[in-house]
Amino acid sequence: MAVHYWTSLFLLLSCLFSISNASAGDADPDYRTCISECEISGCVGQLCFPQCNSSSDGGPWYIQEPLYLQWKKWGCQGDCRYQCMVNRERERETLGQAPVKYHGKWPFKRVLGIQEPASVAFSVLNLAMHFHGWLSFFITLYYKLPLKQDKSADVDLTERLDYSSAVAVLGFSLILAILRTFDIRVEATRVMVSAPILAFVTTHILYINFYKLDYGWNMIVCMAMGVTQLFLWARWAAVSSHPSNWKLWVVVIAGGLAMLLEIYDFPPYEGYFDAHSIWHAATIPLTILWWSFIRDDAEFRTSSLLKKTKTKAK
Asked: Where is it predominantly found (predicted)?
């Protein structure tokens, strides 16, 4: 079943947004000097950060930070980087220079401690749409689709978890896409198709977690699996007589176009709305349509199965 495709496409694009740490902004000598001075003095200009104060025994600031500040990544170093970035971007704007990235990210404006507020807001809406989709799907599955008479038919740590779960879901959904597209029913063949993909995905997850969190390589892996699925579902839609094919076509085509928002990266407008956040917004209606297709697909397959069962009984 195509249940995991759209979720995996979302995760694919999240992988595409992951980039290298080396950026023009953090290589700027003025920015680096500002960071060094802030980590010593705890201040950027007239703005000082209490969490940058060293302990009485002279221990380094990063050991003394409360755990909740370390977890939020807005400790001394985070605040120094942010304020130095803000000051440097003001200087660049005065000189008529375009924004640049710092540590792999555009210079966003914080809102309530959130570095990318627009992306977070649209992500929450996407999550709400997925929750609604899963809920409506299971209601359809357990209460509206009887398979048998009187019976119902048979849900840095955060970064690694993000990439690991993305790759895992992409790998699993790639297997489903292959099995569904080519209508592979023989169990031995299913194992032969699934085993190498599962082996590769497992190896990749171990690699990025215990050897090197390589953003570039992770992006290539995610892109390869995601684009492959896109073409597989397009092929399935082209040859299938499914009554809701048009919904799948809209999702595939519009999803592919939305991917351009990730490829065409641009600085955040007014410090909030960049290509990634706009992509999140664009995928909200596609999520609704995708789950609508999933429910239609469950009904169609159940109806076809019941017809076959009745035909055999005769």
From this structure: membrane
Boundary of a domain, candidates 94, 129, 148: 94
Domain count, the chain: 2
Evaluate the CA torsion angle 293, 297, 300, 303 in order and state its sign: negative
Average pLDDT over residues 223-228: 84
**Nearest CA-CA partner of 221 in 202, 234, 237, 238:** 202
Q: Quickly count: other Cβ atoms within 10 Å of residue 304's Cβ.
A: 10
Residue pair 2/137 in contact (Cβ under 8 Å)? The answer is no
Task: Tell me the range of 140-154, 186-200, 229-243 where mean pLDDT is highest.
Answer: 186-200
Entry pTM: 0.51
**Cα–Cα distance measured from residue 143 to residue 165, given in angstroms and rounded to the nearest whole number:** 30
Domain of residue 69 covers 29-94
103 domain residue, yes or no = no
- Residue with the larger pLDDT of the pair 288 and 14: 288
Which of 137-151, 156-170, 299-313 shows the lowest per-residue confidence on average (mean pLDDT)?
A: 137-151
Question: Using CA atoms, how far apart are residues 279 and 276, in angstroms rounded to an integer?
Answer: 5
Structure tokens at 169: 């879901």
* Residue 11: pLDDT over 80: no
Please state, in angstroms and rounded to a whole number, the distance separating the CA atoms of residues 7 and 294.
12
Residue with tokens 């899963």: 134
Whether 242 and 123 map to the same domain: the answer is yes
Q: Which of 194, 297, 181, 197 is nearest to 244 (CA)?
A: 297
Half-sphere exposure of 284 (CA within 13 A, CB side): 14
CB atoms within 10 A of CB 78: 18
Structure tokens at 136: 């409506």
121/234 Cα distance (integer angstroms): 30
Say how far apart CA 106 and CA 282 lie, in whole Å: 20
Q: Which residues pair with 102 in a beta bridge?
A: 105
